[in-house]
Structure formats: C-alpha cells, structure tokens
Write a structure and sequence with these properties.
The protein is built from seven helices and ten strands. The protein has about 220 residues and is of the alpha/beta class. Strands 6-7-8-3-9-10 form a six-stranded mixed β-sheet, sandwiched between helices. A four-stranded antiparallel β-sheet has the order 2-1-4-5, with helices on one face.
C-alpha cells in the first residue's frame, strides 16, 4: 500500500519582491512501512518536502496524499486532527516542554486528542528505548541522547502511520546517533510505521531502506 504519494508538486515562496522555487515537479511514492532518508545540501528543499508531507504547509500546485487522503481536500481543522492522529514528528531540537516530566511529554499528544492513554503500550516502548527509569525526570535532567529517545517515544506513542524526522541525530555524537537510529529502525519495523528522515550524515542515511537525494528543489537519481 502507498503510504505517501506526491503528484506534480511545486512549492513557491513569494514575498512580493522575490519568488523562490523551493520544490519543482516532485513525483514521489513511499510504500507503507518503508524507511526513507532524504539528503541534500542546505536550502535544497528537504525540510520543505517534509513539511508538505506532514501537512504543515500546502503545495503551490500538485497533490499530496497520505494514506490515500488528499491534503488539498481538508480545511485547517481537519488537517490538524488528521496530522495529530496519523503523523508523528521528531525534531532536531527535541521540542520537549521543560515544565513537563518525561511521561507527561510522551503522552501529551494523546491527551490533546482526548484519547485514553495506553499505559501498557507506553511502558513497552519506553522499556524498548531505555528510558523507563526516567519517566519522572524533567528534560533539563536528561542528556541529549535521552531527550531524543523521549522525542522518539512521543512520536511512537500515538501509534501514527508515519514518522517524520528532521535531523534527529544532528545534536548527537556518533555513537548516540547510531544507537538512536537503530532504535528508530527497530520500533518502525515493530509497529509497521513509515519513516522519512532528513539527514546530512551519509552514514546515517545509508541505514535507511532507500535514500532520496534532493538538490535545488528537485529529486535526483
């Protein structure tokens, strides 16, 4: 099954003085449960592509489908709900709330959606990624690697179909990066999630099932 599909997608930014083509003629299909890395130089369009797939932005033209749902056919409220229920985000700077402990950070998206917390599932994933003894700690009490594990657990906790990771190892040392990516691959396969990851690290990129290269807003073979 196709998890993500982009058809003739263009993205332009126009500030009234200058028009920039961020993405041009993107046609892309990502299969369900596939782990894809996206590489390219700074400003090549990687983050723009991830934002369109995550429903954080709309294409200037073309169509973005996630699990056969066309983002163009949803209003902002519908898209927000769909995104919260189907897409997990992992950011380079973790985006953990400092006044919430680890457990509260992990379950926050579930609570925002008004759903019942599956504590057995939360216990399972926190044990798998090695933070089960940190649930009462606050982000300031954790190392960078531990904070990234919390961010991964938060992304997995809602059981989304897709996980989008923007430079998830950018702030980590090489050993921790390898550990985090290994955990991400393991949990992705276990919970049958499609993963798309931006990275500048070629070694990290090669851990994915497929590597997409983007330059000047276009996909390269």
């Amino acid at each position: 099954m196709n998890s993500v599909k982009l058809v003739d997608v263009y993205k332009k930014y126009d500030n009234g003085i200058l028009e920039v083509n961020a993405l041009e003629d993107i046609n892309l299909t990502i299969q369900s449960s596939e782990f894809v890395s996206i590489v390219g130089t700074s400003g090549s369009g990687k983050s723009t592509l991830l934002n369109l797939i995550g429903g954080l932005d709309y294409p200037s033209s073309g169509d973005v489908f996630v699990d056969d749902v066309n983002f163009k056919e949803m209003n902002e409220e519908e898209l927000t709900i769909f995104r919260r229920r189907n897409i997990g985000f992992i950011f380079q700077d973790f985006n953990l709330l400092p006044l919430l402990n680890v457990y509260e950070n992990i379950v926050l998206p579930i609570q925002l959606d008004g759903k019942k917390i599956d504590d057995e599932f939360i216990d399972q994933i926190t044990r798998q990624i090695g933070i089960q003894d940190k649930l009462e700690n606050y982000p300031s009490q954790l190392s960078g690697g531990q904070q990234q594990r919390v961010a991964i657990a938060r992304a997995i906790a809602t059981k989304p179909a897709i996980i989008l990771a923007d430079e998830p190892t950018g702030n980590l040392d090489s050993k921790t990066s390898q550990d985090v990516l290994g955990l991400l691959k393991m949990t992705g396969k276990k919970y049958k999630q499609t993963i798309m990851m931006i990275t500048h690290d070629e070694t990290i990129a090669q851990m994915a099932d497929r590597v997409l290269r983007i330059e000047d807003g276009s996909l390269r073979k």
